[in-house]
Structure formats: structure tokens, C-alpha cells
Design goal:
Elements lengths: L13 H25 L6 H7 L4 H5 L5 H25 L7 H13 L3 H9 L6 H4 L3 H23 L6 H31 L7 H17 L1
């Protein structure tokens, strides 16, 4: 071995890995609180460090830039969304109302956390994708697998034994359309909340309409 070659570093112990994972969760929780209170602009390394009584240098050990922090935060927020929807769907008995449950679960998850919704679905339209951490690798390795597990379950719940592949694809497309409709509703509610100009229909009326449309379509 040459003098310049470095000996391989030993793998961290389970205790160290657990400590790092706990610290990472605490940092992301602090970033989430800042996001919900003040939007993406409020999520800075300095603000997160101050909230946790850390130095910025200590924070750099986990997130060397705001971009890497936002990437991890968005992935965490999306995982929360998918978990909430899957839990709601899992609680639903057999029948054709699974899409209505999904739409309502999406609404319930974000209606009091619109800054989280904006960070995932709206902010990348205003800021460069790299700033939000939504690079190609993040989309392929983090975002897409999360949404895929949602639509895998919805397809499973919507299809019956013996359905053909085209029929299964149609059910999956219907589930995707229901999700897009829920996303569109939250987008409009986010816009009207920021403008102080509510929609002419109540949230309940719009939710009931979407639930009815997609539940009927699923049973067709």
C-alpha cells in the first residue's frame, strides 16, 4: 500500500447509525415546522440550526446545503402524504368507494398544511428545479417510487380477479385521474387561500362531487 493510500474506514456501529438517523429526523421535523409557518423561504440552514440550538457547522454534517435539505424534506413530506392515503384506503372495506376515500384523504392531509402542499406541487414552478431538489435522480429514485406504491394499491383494490390487462390499466388510469383531481382541488384552494378569495362552492360540495364521480366510475 502506498504512503498516500488511506486505510478503509470502519463501518459505523448500530448506535452511531441510530444517532445519525435520529438527528436527521429532528432536523427534518424542524425544517417542516419552519415550512408550515413561513413557506419555503423560511427554511434556511441558519433557521433550522437556531431552532435546534445547533451550529451551522454541525448541520452541514447532515445537509451541506439548503438544496440537499429541501430535497430530503420534500421526500419526507411526500412519504407522509402517501402513508396517510394508504392508511385511509386500508381502513376502507371492499366496495367501489376507494377513490372517494383517496380524494378525501388527500384533502384532509393538506388542507391545514398548505405550505407543505405548495412545496411539493407548486414551488418548483416558481423556483429552479435544482433549488427545490427535484432533479432527475430525485424524481426517479424518490418521488416516483412513492407515488407508484400508492397506485399499485389502488389498482389492486379496484380490479377483480380475471380482469384483462387493458381493464387493469383502465382502472389504474382512473385512480390516477382521481388523484389529479384531488391535486387540482388543493391547488385552487391554495390559490384562493393566498388571495383571500374563496371558491363559490364549499369544500364539502366539491369533495362530495369528486367522490361521487369517481366512485360511480369505479363501479362502472
Amino acid at each position: 500500500m502506498s504512503k498516500s493510500a488511506k486505510a478503509p474506514q470502519p463501518a459505523p456501529s448500530d448506535r452511531i447509525r441510530q444517532k445519525r438517523a435520529r438527528a436527521r429526523r429532528e432536523i427534518l421535523a424542524a425544517a417542516r415546522e419552519l415550512l408550515l409557518a413561513g413557506g419555503v423561504d423560511a427554511v434556511t440552514l441558519a433557521a433550522v440550526a437556531a431552532r435546534l440550538d445547533l451550529t451551522k457547522q454541525a448541520l452541514y454534517h447532515y445537509f451541506p446545503s439548503k438544496e440537499t435539505l429541501l430535497k430530503a424534506l420534500i421526500a419526507s413530506l411526500l412519504e407522509e402524504e402517501i402513508d396517510a392515503i394508504l392508511a385511509a384506503v386500508d381502513r376502507t372495506g371492499p366496495g367501489g368507494d376507494v377513490l372517494g376515500v383517496m380524494v378525501k384523504a388527500f384533502y384532509d392531509h393538506y388542507i391545514h398544511a398548505l405550505e407543505a402542499f405548495r412545496a411539493i406541487y407548486c414551488q418548483s414552478q416558481l423556483l429552479p428545479a435544482a433549488t427545490m431538489g427535484l432533479d432527475e435522480d430525485t424524481l426517479r429514485e424518490t418521488i416516483n417510487p412513492q407515488t407508484r406504491r400508492l397506485f399499485d394499491l389502488l389498482e389492486q383494490r379496484l380490479t377483480a380477479k380475471g380482469m384483462s390487462k387493458p381493464e387493469r390499466r383502465q382502472k389504474r388510469r382512473l385512480a390516477y385521474s382521481a388523484w389529479l383531481s384531488a391535486l387540482g382541488l388543493l391547488t385552487m384552494l391554495s390559490v384562493t387561500e393566498a388571495a383571500g378569495d374563496p371558491l363559490i362552492y364549499s369544500d364539502r360540495e366539491l369533495l362530495d362531487t369528486l367522490k361521487g364521480v369517481f366512485n360511480d366510475a369505479a363501479q362502472a
